[in-house]
Amino acid sequence: MEKNKKKGKKVTILGAGNVGASIAFAMAIKGLCSEMLLVDINKSKAKGEAMDIMQGNAFCPTCDIYDGDYEDAVNSDLVIITVGIARKPGQTRIDLCKTNVGIMSSVMPQITKYAPNAIYLVVSNPVDVLTYGALQGTGLTPDHVIGSGTVLDSSRLRTCLANHTNLNVKNIHAYVFGEHGDSSMVPWSLSSIAGMKFDEYCSDVEDLGDKDAIQQEVRDGGAEVIKCKGATYYAIALSVNQIAEAVLRDTKAVLTVSTLQDGSNYGVKDVCLSLPCVIGANGVERKIIPPMTESEIEKFRKSGDALHSVIDAVFH
Fold first, then answer.
1. Which residues, listed in sequence order, are joined to residue 196 by a DSSP beta bridge?
2. Which of 83, 82, 56 is nearest to 243 (CA)?
3. Which candidate, 112, 201, 103, 149, places its Cα nearest to that of 307?
4. 1 band by pLDDT with thresholds 50, 70 and 90
5. Rounded to an integer, what is the distance from CA 180 to the centroid of its chain?
6. Paired residues of 278 in beta bridges
7. In whole angstroms, how far apart are CA 52 and each of 47, 49, 56, 286?
8. Does residue 308 carry a catalytic annotation?
9. What is the pLDDT of residue 93?
C-alpha cells in the first residue's frame, strides 16, 4: 500500500487490547470502512490483531487492516480511543482517573497532529472524564469529540426489559442518561414498550416490578460479566460500531453519547455526560433535549454534580 494514500473511509483505533481488537473485528465484519489502522504501545499485539482479522478478509467486506504508528493516522475519518488501564484492586476511582487522564493527555497531541479533522470517539473508562480530558488543549471542537457514554447502558436496559417482558428488544425504547457509572439515571417517562408508555404497559399489560431494581440490574450488568469472565468487550464493541456507523455512513442516528455540556441542557455545564444526540458525518449534528419530569431532571443534575466532583479532583 502506498503510504498515506486514502482509499475510502479510514478508521484509526488506538489500543489493540480486548476492547480495541473486538471493535476492529466487529467493524470488519460489518464493512464500515475500507481502511483500518491499529496502534498500540505493544506493537506486536497490534500487528497480530491486524493480521488475524485481515486473514479473514475473504469472508467479509474487503478492508485493508494494518498496524502502525500515529503518523499513519493521516486522513482518518474517525479515531477510536481505547487506551488506558483497568482499575486495580485497592485503587481509588480518582487514582484511576488521574492515571488514564495522564495517558490521554500524552496520546491526544500525538494523534491530533496527524488527524486534526477526524471525529474522535472515546471509549476508555471512566469515559465521561476522559472525554472531557480529550478536549483539553487539543483545539478540537466539542462536536468532534464523542464519548461512548451510555449507549451500552441503554442497550443493557432494553435487553433487561426485553427479558422481563419476553418481547423483542426492538419493540422496546428506553434510555440511560447521565454518567456511564453509578450516578446514571433512567428517564422512565421517556421509556416505551410496544408503543405504550412504560407506566401504561405496567398498569394495562403486566407489572414489571420495581423500577429501581431494574435500574440496579442494568448498572450491575457489566460487573456481572467481569465477575464471570474477567472483562467486558463484545457488547461495548457492538455499541461502538453503532456510533461509528452513524459517523462513517452519516446515518443521523439518535444515540446517548457523552458530550460536553454548555449549560443549556437542564443547567448542567463544563462536564461531559450523556443525553440523546444526532450523530452523523460531522460528529454531534445536534442535541435533543427531551422533556423529563422534575424528579428526573434532578437526578440528571446530580449525575452532573458527581462528575463535576471527579473533574475538580483530577483537573484542578
1. 193
2. 82
3. 149
4. very low
5. 9
6. 254, 286
7. 9, 5, 7, 38
8. no
9. 73
Q: Measure the CA–CA gap between 192 and 109, rounded to whole angstroms.
A: 43
Hey, what's the cell of 196? 405504550
Q: Which helix (H) or strand (E) holds 119?
A: strand 119-122
3-state secondary structure of 36: strand
The type of residue at 219 is R
Q: What are phi and psi of 141, to 5 degrees?
A: -85, 150
Interacting residues of 9 by C-beta distance below 8 A, sequence separation 6+? 32, 33, 34, 35, 77, 78, 248
Catalytic residue chosen out of the listed positions 173, 180, 308, 316: 180
Weakest mean pLDDT among 68-77, 152-161, 209-218, 252-261 = 209-218
d(CA 73, CA 52): 20
Q: What angle do CA 315, 70, 29 make, to 5 degrees?
A: 100
The DSSP line for 204-268 is HT-----HHHHHHHHHTHHHHHHHHHS---HHHHHHHHHHHHHHHTT--EEEEEEEEEEEEETTE
Q: Are 276 and 153 in contact (CB under 8 A)?
A: no
